[in-house]
Every structure is written in structure tokens, then in C-alpha cells.
Amino acid sequence: MEMEHSMRNEELKSKAIKVSRGLADFLCQLRSLHTDFNPSAGSLLFSVEHNGLEFPASNWNYAFAAMGLFAASRYFDEPYYEKSAMQFMGYLKTLQIFDPYHKEHYGAIREYSPQTPWCYTRDALSAAWGFLETYRYTGDEEYLDRAKLWANWFFKKGLDDEKYPFFGVQFDKDFSHRTPHIQNEMQGSFQGGCLNFLYQLSCQTGESRWTGEEFIKIADIFVDHIQQPDGFFVSVDRKTKKVSDDALYRQLHRANDDLGTLGLLCAYRVTGNKKYLASIEKFMNAVFEAQREDGHFEDSVAPVPVVLNTLFEAKDLINVETMKADSISRALNALFSRQCDGEVNPRMRGGLVEMESAMQYVTVRSSSYALIYLLKAFGEVQDYLTVKPGVRKTEISDNRK
């Protein structure tokens, strides 16, 4: 298979490892000063622009940045990467609700800050996924408890009558009036990624309830209604199952399926139902049929690591007829070409330029995905964004805490 050949290509491997080092350094330098007088100690940025504008991260960014840095710490044997990841997780802990005056939402995770009065359910799920992976990395039971507390809240407050995740949940009144941003009339294309966390939580705890009725309903709605005849996933109206009128959500998460097909691979592992494999195959064929000559799948670079990661995990189970002999190597070189040299703004150095049509900013999203995938494919650190179950605890020596 072309993927296996590409992984053995020494030139590609050398580039991949060099890019990975730059990505890890980029993520670390986006961390807010970790001191006791900084109210945002350990917090993370989502994006940095060439003109100096910086936008704060939401809860899920912390999880994927930490996963990438845990992988980098293992591969490069660099304690600083681990230290940064743990400080990110320290900030993420402050977003989880344990306020006795919020008993209804005990265990929920706020979106941006300890005061943010809402969350998007999928974002918060990814944050809880970060807790689970931190438990596996450290062996600290607190992180597993946090992941389970969130999952319990999710099953109680985060699902509609069909057992599909709500778009978002409001905890308190918004700070000011604005256009509604939580669209609970919609069943989002991004919710297929929920399957990954629930599957991994079930594997970790041995509790089948995390992959029971709710898990199967999410998978079935994702395949039966969210996926369209062309193979892509599109948000739909909750009641009618017709494609959403919202232009943004007709285009969001196309080639970057937000880890939805990886989630379907988890559903296949649980059930053995090949309709989930057929869905993945249909999507992958659509994606590679649309691949551009320059190797990209669309304007954003984020689909490259997301698509290649699912292909890596499902390589023995699906057949992608639309792939060409050089599809993977072109995609990798496209990804490498987006790494920013920091010439205009040193804060951007090492990150991936997110959009071809807007070359002025880099993001944690594509950078984290790429770091995880590259160290998996070329560094054999295969613990993250995977369907492989099992306990992966390690101990952190005293001098690395």
C-alpha cells in the first residue's frame, strides 16, 4: 500500500520529524506565563496572526495540544514538552464545574474560561478525552475521575431525545446579548467524533455502558442521516433530517470530518457492523477524489493529518479506489509546506498556516493534529487518536513533575 511505502521513505521521515519538533516548540511557546500571580496561568492560544492579534483557546484545544506534547515528550525525550502539556491540563481543570450552586451541571466543562456560561458539547467531550489521555500518561486517578464525571453529565444533560448530542448547553446567562450561537435545532456533523472518547473510556474502565445505547444511536444517526450521498457529512435539522440551512454548517467539517470516521472505526470495533466501514470507505473515496494537485484536500490544512490518521488506523479494513500512487506523499508535502518560519511574527514560528486563502495566521487545531499524526506515522508513538484499546499508564519521575 502507498501509505506503507511513504512511511519507509527516509526523506519524508526526516521532514516529518523536523516539522514535528517545530510544532511541539510552537505549542509550548503559546502557553501563558505559569506563575501564581497570573489569573490565566497555563492557558493556551488558539491562533496567532502576522499582525500580532492572538485569540484564546477553547477547552478542546488544550486536550489535543497536550496529546501532541505527550507524544513529543516520548519521542524526543524532552521533559519541557511534558511540563507544558501538564500545565495546559492544569488550566483545563479550572474549567470543570464543581460549584455546589451548579449541582445540575456537576462535572460539565466550560468553553473558554472559568466564567464562560456555556459549552459546545463536542468541544467539552474532547476536553474530557484529554483528561482520559492524561490519566493514561501519568497514572493519576484524578484525571480518570474527571473524565467519568464529565461522561455522566453528558449522558444526563448533553443528549436529545434520540440520544444524539445537543449542539451546546447553557449553564448561566450570557454576559451580553448577542446572536444565538447554540443551535440545538441542529444535529451537527461534528458529533461523530464523540464516539472516540466514549469508546476509549469504555476500554479504559471496562464499563460497557459507555458504548451502549447512546453510543450506537450517535453512530447510526451519523451514518444514516448526517452522511450525504456524495460521502461527506453535513449538519441536519434535528426534526426533519434535512440539510441545515446554515451556510457555515453546510461546509464545515468536510474533508476534516472532525474525527468522525475515526469514531466510526470505534463503532465497528464495538459492534462488528460493516456498515460503519462502508461509511468510512465512502467518505475516504470522496475525499481523495477531491484531492488537489498540490496535495491538499481543501483550503484548510487541517484535513491532511485528520484524513491520513484515519487512513492509517483503517488501512487494513477499507479500500480507497480514488487514491493515486502519490496521494499520501503529496498530502504530506502539502502539510510540510504550511509550516510557518516566523519571519513576520516570531510567535507564529513552527505552527501550521491554517488557510491558503488567509495565509496570515496559524492555529493550534491543525498544528496539534499534525503533531499527533506525524509522530504516529514516522515516530511510532501510536497512543493518540487511535482505535487501539488498552491501558497505557507511565510513571513520571520526580524531576519531571
Strand content: 5-15%
Shape: globular
* Tally of DSSP helical segments: 14
- The mean pLDDT is 93
Computed Rg? 20 Å
Q: Count of DSSP E strands? A: 8
Order of helices and strands: HHEEHHEHHEEHHEHHHHHEEH
Low-confidence stretches: 395-401
Measured distance between first and last alpha carbons: 42 Å
Mind summarizing the main beta sheet? 4 strands, antiparallel
Spatial sequence of strands, sheet with the most strands: 2-1-8-7
Description:
This protein is of the alpha+beta class and 401 residues long. The chain has helices at 2-8, 10-28, 59-76, 79-93, 121-138, 141-157, 194-205, 213-226, 247-251, 260-271, 274-289, 303-313, 327-337, 364-377; strands at residues 45-49, 54-56, 118-120, 168-170, 186-187, 236-237, 352-355, 358-363. The strands form three sheets. It has a four-stranded antiparallel β-sheet. A two-stranded antiparallel sheet has the order 3-4. A hairpin with a 4-residue loop joins strand 1 and strand 2. Helix 2 crosses helix 14. It starts with a helix and ends in a 24-residue tail after the last helix.
Topology of this structure?
Elements: H1 2-8, H2 10-28, E1 45-49, E2 54-56, H3 59-76, H4 79-93, E3 118-120, H5 121-138, H6 141-157, E4 168-170, E5 186-187, H7 194-205, H8 213-226, E6 236-237, H9 247-251, H10 260-271, H11 274-289, H12 303-313, H13 327-337, E7 352-355, E8 358-363, H14 364-377
Antiparallel strand pairs: 1-2, 1-8, 3-4, 5-6, 7-8
Helix pairs in contact: 2-3, 2-4, 2-13, 2-14, 3-4, 3-5, 3-14, 5-6, 5-7, 7-10, 8-10, 10-11, 12-14
